[in-house]
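Protein in question passed on here:
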Amino acid sequence: MISEDVLQKILVRHDALAAAMADPARAGDDFASLSREYSELSPVVEGINAYRKARRELLELEEMRRSEDAEMRALAEDELASLRQRLPELERQVRLLLLPRDEADERNAILEVRAGTGGEEAALFAGELFRMYQRYADLKGWRFEPVSYSETDLGGCKEGIATISGRGVFARLKFESGVHRVQRVPETEGSGRIHTSAATVAVLPEAEEVDIRIEEKDLRIDVFRSSGPGGQSVNTTDSAVRITHLPTGIVVQQQDEKSQHKNRAKAMKILRARLYEREREQKDQARAAARKGQVGSGDRSERIRTYNFPQGRVTDHRINLTLYKIDKVISGEALDELVDALIAADQAARLAEVGAEG
């Protein structure tokens, strides 16, 4: 059972926030942060109230069951059976709401897809993954903006980067980071032999300037002429930008825009996200090491999913889930089934972790 002291503290805090916000002049500069905390606590308070109401009803029904009136006792028994089924789920919902939130969950995301082992077939698969996420974003009503896309001569993707904006983007896409493997017969394969190729996906929370402070002295910025497939020059001016963050060695290159300023701005956005993610990973390392049941570390070298075209299946290896609807997954339609299962598995692992600590 959840500690009543914990629940009461949340309710008291929620009331205090409501009182503070009732007088914006008194709240002053803190009004925005108080308002954000209040809105974050509101669903928790709703869950607590529903759980408490059910517990009160349980006590009342148990009292009714001791009534001398046979009809009243029978009615109480029926309602008790229903309530006892509902109560564990209400308690579980409150426990989920009380789990520590990933502060990045509500952020927009930067998606990076790169061809891995497998040559041209890996590049073709990377292009399919990039388009899968684009269609998925469209289905969710999110904004998908390609930042850069490096195409091979046969139409594959060496590297594709995009920003995805919308509500809860990072929360739903963060488990996509890792190695995605494909098994199929390439169109160029005459003998009908199945090849295995791979592409890596990275999903980074978008960072604001206030999150990551980048010193100008820590940057080396090189400008050069952008080039297309085969190395041919695309622009006649030095508009492409390569930014090296000297303390970490992180390199970001951007050449899709004709303007050097636009390329620099996009490159800085990606650099900020990579530095923010690096900081998050360092903070999470100790905690992640202790979490045996975690769904996935987001390590780019971890093989997370296999797309087997001959068998028409997609298997997520972290949760041992297989869907025999590869076309619908690749089109983005069935991706939610994988995402929902991964989120549920992560929540279950975190609940078990809290239970073990308790």
